[in-house]
Amino acid sequence: MILILLFVGILIFIGGLLLMPTKATRLITGAIGLLLLLTMATLMIGNDNWHWGMHQTTTTSTLNITSMSPDKRLGLLVYQPIRQSKHERVYVYKNSHATQQHTNVSLKTSNRVAYTSTKQAQLTTKQTYWTYNQHWQWLFKWTGSHHELIRRQNAFVLPDSWTTLSSVQAKWLAATVKTQEAAAKRNLQNQVTTAFKAALAQQPTMTTQQQQTLKEKLAKQAQLVADQRLSQNLTKLVKTAHSQPIR
User: What pTM did the predictor assign?
Assistant: First the structure.
């Protein structure tokens, strides 16, 4: 609407100076047109530079997130450095449906990570916008966005057991864990085979069913020990991953 009034002011100003029959009416009409033109131009400049007719509104949303690690033993939040790695980061996470998402890449976006005694990792996003007051919204209709973002604040609240790694560090950790788990699996199979042969040598009269039961028992025992060792080793690997280059 302000664009229409601006155009009307121009028409009145030009028409008044050129079309009015007397000098007095030309001056009066031209002055009215000029006043309307200057008023609308001033309002547009004030709105564009100082947000006249607008107020700030804030919305807050909270989302449960899940670990980026395929290993259920590790809670992991991943980030990708942007330009200055210590200050600008894009965080990658999964929502409750295990869909991968990331924070916005914008100078208006800030991210904060905090560790607490909570059990559920969450992302709270607070967004502040410039929005028009009721009458000004009518006046500035058709002039562009009426919902301008001022700032977006992302706050990740993570359990104390979680960790945060860069994408490069997370890839190093995943590859190392995969290699060690493959080696542990081979070692587990060798241990079960050796223990089974030793038990069979002591009791060669075991039936097929007894042998199968023994194999399952030995496998469970060996798996339990292997899982404990891998969990302990995972903690060490996470510390080592933090010492790897960020990118």
Answer: 0.78
Coil vs helix vs strand at 104? coil
Contacts of 216 (CB under 8 A, 6+ apart): none
233 φ, ψ (degrees, to nearest 5): -70, -30
Alpha-carbon distance of 121 to 115, in angstroms, equals: 9
Q: How far apart are CA 80 and CA 170, in angstroms?
A: 10
Residues with Cβ within 8 Å of residue 175, at least 6 apart in sequence: none
Burial class (CB in 10 A: 0-12, 13-18, 19+), 32: middle
pLDDT tens across 131-145, in order? 988 778 888 877 766
What stretches of the chain show up as alpha helix (H) in DSSP? Answer: 2-19, 23-50, 134-139, 167-202, 208-242
- Scanning 130-166, the segments in alpha helix (DSSP H) are 134-139
Q: Do the beta carbons of residue 202 and residue 210 sit within 8 Å?
A: no
Q: Please name the residues in contact with 218: beta carbons below 8 A apart, sequence gap of 6 or more.
A: 191, 192, 195, 196, 199
Asked if 236 and 172 touch (Cβ cutoff 8 Å), the reply is no
By CB neighbour count within 10 A (0-12 exposed, 13-18 middle, 19+ buried), where does 37 fall? buried
3-state secondary structure (DSSP) of residue 163: strand
- For the stretch 2-14, pLDDT in tens is 778 877 888 998 8
Strand partners, 125: 61, 154
Degrees (nearest 5) of the Cα angle 70, 73, 77? Answer: 60
> What is the DSSP code (8-state) at residue 233?
H
Pairwise CA distance, residues 121 & 77, whole Å: 10
